[in-house]
């Protein structure tokens, strides 16, 4: 009896909205790039680590619909995508659908911009956008 009451309580929490679409974000939520820093000069020809941070929300893998969660997308040398469509999946929009919070990246020499954007369980940006500041790095 006690197990069935616990299961009913858990289902009640899930039914109340905790497992609904993650598209709405708290207005104070944001992502940040922990490293590299804005203005960083990176050595060419070898991968470097980029690590991601998130405040006032949680990380969940793609396909998991849980309130106030999402997964990171790293935007390279591009602007923010359309707010109502899935984030593209290409060389300029890297998806981290397993819930990763860091990656190794290698870029050609030159100036590059990096920005994080959180996406919901279907890779759609949250409302409002949960994003980092766009940073510029130089690879030499």
From TrEMBL:
UniProt key word Signal: yes
InterPro entries in the record: DUF4399 (IPR025512)
KW Signal (keyword) present: yes
Signal peptide start and end residues: 1-21
Superkingdom to which the source organism belongs: Bacteria
DUF4399 domain span: 50-140
Keywords on record: Signal
Protein name: DUF4399 domain-containing protein
Organism whose genome encodes this protein: Duganella aceris
């Amino acid at each position: 009896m006690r197990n069935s009451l616990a299961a009913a309580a858990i289902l009640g929490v899930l039914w109340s909205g905790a497992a609904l679409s993650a598209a709405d974000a708290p207005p104070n939520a944001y992502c940040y790039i922990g490293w590299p820093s804005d203005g960083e000069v990176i050595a060419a020809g070898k991968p470097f680590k980029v690590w991601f941070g998130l405040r006032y929300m949680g990380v969940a893998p793609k396909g998991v619909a849980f309130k106030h969660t999402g997964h990171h997308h790293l935007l390279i040398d591009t602007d923010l995508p359309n707010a109502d469509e899935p984030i593209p999946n290409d060389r300029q929009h890297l998806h981290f659908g397993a819930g990763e919070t860091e990656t190794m990246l290698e870029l050609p020499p030159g100036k590059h911009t990096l920005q994080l954007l959180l996406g919901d369980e279907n890779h759609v940006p949250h409302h409002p956008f949960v994003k980092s500041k766009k940073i510029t790095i130089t690879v030499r």
